[in-house]
Specification:
The protein is α/β, with parallel strands linked by helices. It has helices spanning 39-42, 59-69, 87-91, 93-101, 121-124, 140-146, 153-165, 186-195, 211-224, 229-237, 242-254; strands at residues 2-6, 13-14, 22-23, 27-28, 52-56, 74-77, 107-112, 129-135, 169-177, 200-205, 260-263. The chain has a single domain, classed as Alpha-Beta Horseshoe (pyruvate-formate lyase- activating enzyme), CATH 3.80.30. The two termini are 35 Å apart. The structure holds iron/sulfur cluster.
Amino acid sequence: MLVKEIKCRTILSKSGLYDIDYSINPYKGCEHSCLYCYAPFIIREKRKWGNFVDVKINAPEVLTKEMRKKKKGNILISSVTDPYQPLEKKYKITRRILEKLKDTKHFVSVLTKSSLVLRDLDLFKKMKCEIGLTITTLDEDTVKIFEPNSSSPEERLETLSYLKISGIKTYIFFGPLLPFISDLNLEKTISRFSLVRPDYILIDKLNIKSQEHWEKIKNVLEMNYPNLVKKWKKVLFSKNDYYDKLKQRIIEIIQNYDIKYEFCY
Ligand code: SF4
């Protein structure tokens, strides 16, 4: 892993995401190295994703300056990196950013795949915020292939549970829905979600950003799930109702629980 300390010029970026005004990415690059990650294609990063991280060491100070000039709004931490990837333990950039945001009127939505987020519970208790943990599947072996360096699904759920018990608003980001993987044991998955009492569940499908993005996924599928390559191609690149049907199935199951939910597709 190539780690470089860099100085950023801006940190509070305008966001086009629904209900989000700004995003903050304390790092460029991500140790979690998820197979399906589309961040490198969004930020046009040519270095091998998962092999490098640029640490924005001056981000908290830049944020202080930028907040003076920008209107209050909803902030997502983060959109193209994980704010609690392992390096955060050492650098504490996310923590220092939260310290700057804690006394402002900004609403902060944190999204991560790491139980390290619990370290900052003291700050969350003083902020207007919600904490989301991403989960694509509960199957540990699958997670090792698709999200190799993040916390296990069970750790993420325990993290959510602890945050919820501590009075923090929480959500599960159920996505990206991996065709014929995330929908295995769907009843069991949603039932397990319900036990941690998230305030809501946000659900999204898998979005392929470019041919290069697909090739990267396809190569790993060929090695680990050869029988899924053709099926994924069909779902992702031809007219079909796979995700519509999956949406209906999820709605039917989730309605059995008292949980709010929203689809991004
Ligand atoms: S945690 Fe998020 S940003 Fe990091 S590799 Fe995974 S999908 Fe990409």
